[in-house]
Amino acid sequence: MKIAYARVSTDNQELYRQLDALEKVGYDKLIQEKFTGTQKKRAGLDTLFMTVRSGDIVIIESISRLGRRTLDILSTVEELKNLGVEVISLKENLDTSTPTGQAMFQMMAVIAQLERDLTVQRVNEGLTSAKARGVKLGRPILDKQKVKDALRLYDSGHYSVKDIIRITGISQGSLYRKLQLRDSKQILNKAIKTT
Q: Which of its termini does the chain have fewer beta carbons within 10 Å around, N or C?
């Protein structure tokens, strides 16, 4: 059986490009997920391992879809090989069923890791440079009055979260974080009073 596996890192990203490439070669089953490749433990990858049987072929658009770290990619391919499953990567035109494909796959995994490391290095250098120029990094500090207003509107029960965000200008994530923090403090205060 040919099993296609597609992955992007975040919900904001789309799988269309990968799915188009995979559909061109054809497959019997598709497993897709939106989760970072920096984590080896992923629901989609777990599903892939539960699905494959000896003699199956896993098709991916690129080796980077299996993970971000060279060791993770290589161990995933090795685990599949130990199950009797071959891996085909379309972008790199690699097929682990051949000795040349196996060697090339390992080299491409190393190159993918190098590319990722260089990207991280450039980002860190950019952040260091920005800090040196006095650029403030991270989340902007929330206006305390806006937070108070948002919590008051929320507590009134007359406004939807969408309305509160529009009225106060704070993000949905910030509102939920502040609500969670407030609830945690209230629970802690109750626990302290009862002891």
A: C
